[in-house]
Amino acid sequence: MKKLSFLLAITCASPVLAADYTDTLVVPPGFVEHWTAPRPFTRVVPGTSDVVEVLSAVGRELVFMIKPDIALPPMTNILLLDNNGAQVANLRIVTPSQLHSQIWQGPGGWQAYRQDNPDYVPPKVKK
Fold it and tell me: Which long-range contacts does 47-50 make (Cβ < 8 Å, 24+ apart)?
């Protein structure tokens, strides 16, 4: 019985079961996102195919799009696995609320800023 409970404890502590997210990406509907994994992966498992479409997945590079005709606010994940089935990354994908948000292209790509976020910094306006 001790061996069984020990095995159960190890299994429940697994990062895959615990839904440990590597990164959280905020991507508006209809937009494409590029993400680089920490190491190469060979398999991509999208959480909800109604929300996200994987466009390209080669080596460490992942390119995906949030489908434009989805109802807000969807949330899903993308799981990246290596040849041995080990988790390379588990990406949490969320879309910004259209209410109280601004979307523009910044130095790191498209960015969404929500005014109800305590860390909100309004964009600098060029005069």
Answer: 47/76, 47/77, 47/78, 47/79, 47/93, 48/74, 48/76
Q: Longest C-alpha distance within the chain, in Å?
A: 72
Domain 15-96 has CATH 2.60.40: yes
Q: Are 37 and 79 in contact (CB under 8 A)?
A: no
Q: What is the pLDDT of residues 46-92, one digit of tens each?
A: 988 888 999 999 999 999 998 887 765 678 899 999 999 999 999 99
Domain borders along the chain are 15-96
HEC profile of 14-68: CHHHHCCCCEEEECCCCCEEEEECCCCCCEEEECCCCCEEEEEEECCEEEEEECC
CA dist 112 → 27, 49, 59, 99, 104 (Å) = 8, 23, 28, 12, 7
- Which residues, in sequence order, are bridge partners of residue 33? 64
* DSSP assigned state of 118: T
Task: Output the CA angle 42-75-93, nearest 5 degrees.
Answer: 45
Nearest to residue 31, comparing CAs of 122, 123, 101? 101
